[in-house]
Amino acid sequence: MNTAATTTTDEHTDAHDHEHHDPRLAHHFDSHQQQFDTGKLGIWLFLVTEVLFFSGLFGFYAVYRSLHPEVFLYASQFLDTMLGAANTIVLLFSSLTMAWGVRCAQLGQTRGLLVCLLITLGCAAIFLGVKSYEYTEKAHHGLLWAGMYVSPEHHGEQHVEPESAPGAAAAAALETELEHAEKEEAAAEESHDNDDSLFEKTKATLSYMTQVLWGVIVLSGIALGVLIKNPNKKSLATIAGCFLVAALGMQLGAYASIGYHTFGHAAEPTHEEIRMAETVPIEYAEQTEKIPEPALAGTFFSVYFCMTGLHAIHIIGGMIAISWLIVRTVNGAFTTYYFGAVDFVGLYWHLVDLIWIYLFPLLYLIN
Asked: Rounded CA gap, 25 and 315, in Å?
């Protein structure tokens, strides 16, 4: 009799607890503080593995640079310091907005949190837009990883200096040089006539990228306008909004890259500019004292694309996580006692920004 009464009471208590259980608190935690502390420990362990991962890359960089300093000194001059600095400022600003968003989540300021997350997502998109321009320009110059590297100085061609050749050999060498110069001039003119210059290639690629982005902007904008009117489609509307913000950010980065690429160049480039642009980047062509090209110059770009490419993948991962936070914010998931997810993603984003702060001087500021 007593056993039956006890069992009935226990079932009633369990049902009552289940009915009033906070859906934000997982069943295997006793309190929100315990849940937050456990999540904080988990994200720090994950960040330690990320640090170990990039430590291997930085270690490889240190060893290779100590063994071949001339490679880094030569190849780093082909990186655009201004674009690297601009991306650094963008990421630093995104860290500010992310930290501000965490504070808004702690204070229960949902609107402020949403704005900060959208700005952070836009900054990440701008960063990728600028990197896409940098990668495009490197590809057109042939400045790729070791197996795909093409010397900007046509290193494989052998030329005899007329001054160092005696007697009849000097005349033959001079004639060879003149013929070679005429061939280069004819090739440059033909390339320019066919609109196949480096500048035209870059503009065509960027133009194609902007067209694709405009398509994404229009489609996501239409989807956002349709879905936002339906209260039951709030999550889908938020996803469409994330696509819209990301595409707008990348579009801004693409147009900024186009403006930067054309800034300071005449509308009708001179014959010398056309000729030099077909062989070497303009920044290198304008140098009065050039650094001699080492034999392993392409290995630097293997390091460059490996480290910056992996960092860009982490940026994309952060954008996915931030978009997830935006969806949850719109659905009202975060409160003053439940904001762990925002804090955890913020820690990840700060690490990604910190890695770039190390990459920027190690790759772009060697000279």
From this structure: 29
